[in-house]
Amino acid sequence: MDVVVITAIIAGLFFVLGIAEPLAARIRLPYTVILAGLGIVIAVSASFFLRTEITDALNPIANAILNFPIRSNVFLYVFLPTLLFQVTLGMNLRRMADDWVPILVLAVVAVFFSTIFVGLSLSWVSGIDLVACLLLAAIVSTTDPSAVVSIFRSIAAPRRLARIIEGESLMNDAAAIALFGLLMGFVMRGVPDPSWQDAILRFPGLILGGAAVGLVLARAMVFLMSFLDRHEAAQISISVALPYLAYIAAEQILGASGVIAVVAAGMTVTVTAPGAISPTSWANMREVWGLLAHWAGALIFVLAALLIPRLLSDVTLVDIGLILFVALAALTARAVILFGLLPTLSFLRLSPNVERPYRAAILWGGLRGAVTLVLALAVTESLRVPPETRRMVGILATGYTLFTLVVQGSSLRWVIGRLGLDKLSALDAALAKQVIAVALQTVREDVAQTTKNYDLSHDTVRSEAKAFGERLDGAVKAAETSEDVLDRDRITLGLVALASAERDIVIERFRERAVSTRLADRVLSDIDRLVEAARQSGRTGYRRAAREAVGLNTSFRAAVWLFNRLKITRPLSRLTADRFEVLLLQGLVLRDLDGFIDRRIRRIHGKRVADLLHELLARRVEMVDQALDGLRLQYPGYAEELERRFIRRTALRLEKREYDELLEEGLIGVELHTDLSERLASRMAQEEKRPALDIVLQKAEIARQFPLFSELDEATLQRLSKALVTRYAAEGDVIVSRNSAADTVYFIASGAVELRARGIAYRLGRGELFGQLAMLTQSARRAEVRAIAPCTLLALDEQRFRRLLRRSKAMQDAVAKSAEKRSIKVPYLDEIRAAKG
């Protein structure tokens, strides 16, 4: 085919992409429906011009369109990795982890159930071989979420719901394509009744092998990117190579799932790259990938749609009936999951609740798209697949895709309207009034400053200010006098606004490079949880989410386990340093919010709500300070190092801004600005590296601050610090259980514990000890000790503790005091005192 013609067709396709999006917005239809429609129109028009005798001038172009040199392998190896990789880069994996149960249910469980249900039903109705029907069912099990997600966003549906849909799309594509590859092998080998035991044993290998390839390659590529700090284009180029290398390596070398490899690579990059490359490079990389994925997704849809007329060229009435049956079976299978399994999991508290109207919208919005067409095309192109199977898959998969696009896609917005999802709730409507009022207050201040700077006519400024003031007063009055909002809802609105302001401050700190991308994502995820918890449960939910933000997450607990059990220090060192940095950032941000409450929220919701928010904010500040004080006690001086680093980075940012302003004002030339910027970039790169934290070498300093060890000389203190073993406990952890061996004493370096014995609870805090009474009385433990706050403990074995007790009067007094408090006699203590006279 002529290169000029191919180039012209490609240019024409990009033109189609350019007009499709505004056209979809204009006629209020999903973008994918418009792309598919345009692709079909182009293909039908090309067929018409090729066959008509009206003109032959367009025959070369029409022939080139209908015989465009693109096959399913091009879709699978060129376009699909781009789409999957970009989706993972755009995901907030921390928030996805909160909803992993519904995502896996909708993605993996639903795909398998739909494949089995549709395959068995179609085989029973049509008499076609079961394995061929299962292959078709796997093909039609993939969903394209773009339509329903875009509409959910336009109607301000909960962000969590959009996350579930996006996560489902990513995972169900991977599961369905892996299942498709397995079934395709059976079909090509001509196995009418495959060994399902064989398939079950092979499937984990496909998944795990692909995941391993993606993980290893991504780690290697991110490691390489970290050495290319000043070469942003090189970093982005390496990221472009990664998904294709992962896909090819998994498929061609290991025989595993290329799709799983790409997904694993994308997730690994999302987690590790923000800490290895600069925030600017990471942001630009995501922008580049967003554009690549937009082009790839649109092109794959248009090019696949060009093939629809050819795939449906010999459709019969029986085929139409089977298409409708497949549509009914697929909807039934999806409904069973959405309205049966998902509510059951919510009832068992294994999954967050998804309200019925949203489940109905998800059901009807399960459109099939480009991936379904590409997989169907792969079957029709394979000469190793029997002809009757190729025809059946091509027609039914294509016909079902058209059904979802034309019938479901065109009516999706109407269905959402009938479900009432396009209307704001009373709370959201009140929030909209609040946002308008707050925004207008800011606008008035900015406009006043602008008119002052430009020295505009006094009469003009006064008349416009009066008109704007009337509008502002009306907006504030509407926010204050909304009858649909109860007092508790006003508090909820204030909490949502407060969390949104907190998010804005964190983003500003991130732009100032005061915090890394990785940690900024973590803090922003915590803020998102605050918003959602406040919307769902008001003050209670906000307090719970605030405690969780300060508490120890699963990764930290795993690092603590590795340290406590296996003495592996590196993960705990890194996560402890992260915790330091996050707590410092939270402390800075929270102290900025008091002014926001007084400036914005007090005027709209009144003094009572503002005072309550101040109280909640003060409790959060207290929790952060308490956690930070505990860390400062454990690692003296490290927090100060981080604070000094923050000041230095802020100074460098301000210096950079000053140079930029001097360049804009023409006071320095481009050459001088470049030279200054390069020097500054070198200093910024040095400050990007966080000071190392050694969690092992701090015990002596901690022990030195204990009043119980105040009598010990330096040599004894050094020996004691080597004998002490650091233990960490999260809130709620059981440190000592009843009837356990009494062979260890614990000193509380930070945090607090609750000791329960004989139905009485005792609370112990920093500087106190526990476990000594059962040891000294040589009795089984009758008490249970549980952490009521994140704790750092120093553990000492029995032999060394007895030796220390004989030497330290302060320790003897502490043991005697605790024994007296619990009315327990300790003969060993009396023996020591008697021996000393």
What does this structure look like?
The relative contact order is 0.06. Helix 7 packs antiparallel against helix 9, helix 8 runs antiparallel to helix 9 and helix 19 packs antiparallel against helix 20. This protein folds into five domains: 59 residues, no CATH class; 346 residues, Up-down Bundle (Na+/H+ antiporter like fold), CATH 1.20.1530; 59 residues; 212 residues, no CATH class; 137 residues, Jelly Rolls (Sandwich). With 837 residues, the protein is mainly alpha-helical. It contains 32 helices and eight strands. 75% of the residues lie in helices and 5% in strands. The strands form two sheets. It has a four-stranded antiparallel sheet with strand order 1-8-3-6. The chain has a four-stranded antiparallel sheet with strand order 2-7-4-5, with no helix packed on it. The longest helix has 65 residues. The N and C termini lie far apart (107 Å).
Helix/strand layout:
Blueprint: H1 3-27, H2 31-51, H3 59-66, H4 72-89, H5 93-98, H6 100-126, H7 130-139, H8 146-154, H9 159-188, H10 196-225, H11 232-254, H12 258-272, H13 279-306, H14 308-311, H15 317-347, H16 356-364, H17 370-381, H18 387-418, H19 426-454, H20 458-480, H21 487-511, H22 517-550, H23 554-566, H24 570-634, H25 638-664, H26 670-688, H27 699-704, H28 714-723, E1 725-729, E2 734-736, E3 744-750, E4 753-757, E5 760-764, E6 769-770, H29 772-777, E7 784-787, E8 791-797, H30 798-807, H31 809-821, H32 827-835
Antiparallel strand pairs: 1-8, 2-7, 3-6, 3-8, 4-5, 4-7
Helix pairs in contact: 1-2, 2-3, 2-13, 4-11, 4-12, 4-13, 4-17, 6-7, 6-9, 6-15, 7-9, 7-18, 8-9, 9-12, 10-11, 10-12, 11-12, 11-13, 13-17, 15-16, 15-18, 17-18, 19-20, 20-24, 21-22, 21-24, 22-24, 23-24, 24-25, 25-26
